[in-house]
Design a protein that fits this description.
With 207 residues, this protein is an alpha/beta fold. The protein is 45% helix and 14% strand. The protein has 10 helices and 7 strands. Helix 9 links the parallel strand 6 and strand 7 (183-186). It is globular. It starts with 6 loop residues before the first strand and ends in an 8-residue tail after the last helix.
Amino acid sequence: MTNSIHAIIFDLGNVLIGWDAHLLYKEYFPNRESVDHFLEEVGFLEWNAKQDAGRPFAEGVEELSNKFPHHAELIQAYDTHWEKSITEPYSESVEIVRALKDAGWALYLLSNFSLEKYKLIEPKHSFLGWFKDKIISGEHGTVKPEEKIFHILIERIGYKPENCLFIDDSLPNIETAQRLGFKTIHFNSPTQLKTQLLNFGIKGIQP
C-alpha cells in the first residue's frame, strides 16, 4: 500500500490544532447552551465559512452586525479576540507529523481557514514550516468539501489523487476526497491516526 502513496496531506483545524468558538464566547455567556443559542441565532457557521472562503473579516463583521445590531459587540469580539478560539497544538498529532517529516515524506496542508487569521498563527507554530506547501482556503475563494479546492491542491503539489493520503476530521471533506480518488483517513484522535497510518504501512510510524 505504501508504495503507491507519495504525499500525505493534513487538515489543520481539529487535527493539528483545535478550533472552537465556544472557547472565546464562554467569557460572554453563563453556559454553553447560551453560546449555542447565540451562534445558531446569527448563523455563525455559515457566516464564518465565508471568511474561510476569502471574505475579509471586517466586511463579514459589518454585514452580520447590520443584520443583528443588538449582537454587534459579540460579533466584533470574534474578530478582535479570534485567537481565543484556537487551542494549543495537539502535541501527539504534531509528533506524528514530525515522525513523517523525519522519515522523508512529502507533507502538505489543506485547510479551511481565513488567510488573515492563518497569518496570525503561522509564525507562532514551527511545525507549520514542516509542510512543503500549504493550501489555505481563504487564499483561493473556495472551501472544502467543494471539489475546486482539491483540484487546486492537485495542481499545486503535482501528485495524482491516488498517490496521496488525505487526513481530515470532517466526513464531507473525506467523502469528496474519496470521490476524487484520494486515499483517506477520517481523523478522530491522534491514537486512531497512528493506527490508521500503520495500517497503510507508512514508514516512520512506530507502533
